[in-house]
């Protein structure tokens, strides 16, 4: 099998014992399975929950805290212990690991996004296993990724992973929560995640997890849109991850055969950038940028709004509303001047306002 780049997401439910505390034996088994992937020469990035589980009893909670500040304090106490446990176990397999704590804001800011990307690439280059978790101390509800499912999907896009493996305490996606309906039917293979499936999915997960199957489906949809195949399921023993990438895993495989990977620049524009203006295009320009892979020229612009400058991201509107987002190569002032000169200066009209490599379609 050719070398694969795999993001493995391990949820709290796959790392804990019956009291919700970190279970070192489970952690050791995941590490063994990752070591096997590395032995087979695959690249692995680990997104691991478990900080709250590793920390709460250490700081005097009788059970997993339910308040945000309680979880944050437990995570602050537990993250070090979690990483220490991973480092020790990886060292037994002669592997090195590194910790990255990320927040949603890190992805919104282009500079920080690039830094995260560069760090990940350098670690992979040096054969170090990145271990990523949300930065729970500074993440408040509006700023978080929701949970590590979405974080793992976004990371899988950034690193252009071949596959995102979401390990959890259940062997895949069912048409209903099988813990509530024992007759629920399991999906073995899917080629898309529909809005309907997400709407029907249950947010209630295990006692230690966040988001249940709903957040996994939202994450899977995101990963698929970024050209990454997804596996949701479980497994036993040190071979479980190699079995999953060979196609014999215990879970649900979701693959979008038509979707190729998209550049990190385009991912940032599509998913994280905050638009600072709007550009309205005419019918010809809409056709050209949507269907002919062309760049947007000033000649096709009817109107601009907002005080954007070169390098900013704007929303692009066509006949029926929003059609995409793009990074402009000139300011609103320059575009407006060009529009005013439309009849007298034909050269201006050929200026490129959004290069096709900096444009993403949202329809
Ligand atoms: N349609 C479904 N198919 C499978 N599992 C489901 C479904 N709906 C809800 N679940 C629940 O989702 C749980 C896994 O989610 P969660 O506890 O958040 O996991 P993790 O900690 O691994 O992120 C399962 O234990 C199961 O009870
Ligand atoms: N970031 C937190 C947990 C987030 C969470 O519960 O995620 P998950 O178990 O993947 O649904 C932690 O490390 O404990």
From TrEMBL:
ATP binds at residues 9, 168-169, 210-216. CDD domains: AAK_G5K_ProB (cd04242), PUA_G5K (cd21157). One of its GO terms (cellular component) is cytosol. Substrate binds at residues 49, 136, 148. GO terms for biological process: L-proline biosynthetic process. Pathway: Amino-acid biosynthesis; L-proline biosynthesis; L-glutamate 5-semialdehyde from L-glutamate: step 1/2. It is an enzyme of class 2 (transferase). Keywords: Amino-acid biosynthesis, ATP-binding, Cytoplasm, Kinase, Nucleotide-binding, Proline biosynthesis, Transferase. Coiled coil: none annotated. It is found in: Cytoplasm. Catalyzes the transfer of a phosphate group to glutamate to form L-glutamate 5-phosphate. PANTHER family: GLUTAMATE 5-KINASE (PTHR43654), ISOPENTENYL PHOSPHATE KINASE (PTHR43654:SF1). HAMAP family: ProB. This is Glutamate 5-kinase. It comes from Virgibacillus pantothenticus.
